[in-house]
Model the fold of this input.
Amino acid sequence: MKVTGKQVMAFWKYMAKKYDFDIVTKADAKEMRIVGWALEQMHIQKKADFLKKYTTTIVLGKWRCVYIPFEIGEGTQAKLIYQNETCVHESQHVVQATRDRMQPMKYLRSDASRAFYEADAYRANMEMHRFFTGRMLSAKYLANLLKGYSIGKADRRICEKHLIIASKVVKRGGVITGPSKVAIRWWKKQQPAKARVRKVMMIRV
Done:
């Protein structure tokens, strides 16, 4: 499924409203520089990497922001799809923090908790990537991304096992994550009317 920059921008706006978060350009946020410094002091992540490479979600009371290091709607088709996956991934973090107010502290203080929360959100990446491309993201690849969060081999292995189980469902067309279900319904409505009619006719036959 091909997407346009305008669609991606509209999708982010829709998800921000649905999950009640603000979208903030990370480079413009002073608080992110402070958080980056703190993460570097805690040996979790280098400040420069944190600011330039990673999207960050913070939910603390009325403070509900997703800080992005890229320009929404710009880039190649692969980058646009990645932006969609990132949106759903971060929406899942919002869900996590809404369910458990201690999520932000657990995330920072415990490698195991950080791995658990990321594995849960990476499942959304897997679901959305399958929806847009028809291909599966490797559980091992996703788990290894946790190296960037200073998460050790044992916790990465647990994350990988969690995603291997999820992949069996996703490969069969199943969707587990709430924000992924919301996102897929939205994107299906963006398909041209003719394409939707053809699909219905094929199913009836």
About this structure: Confidence is low (pLDDT under 50) at residues 196-205.
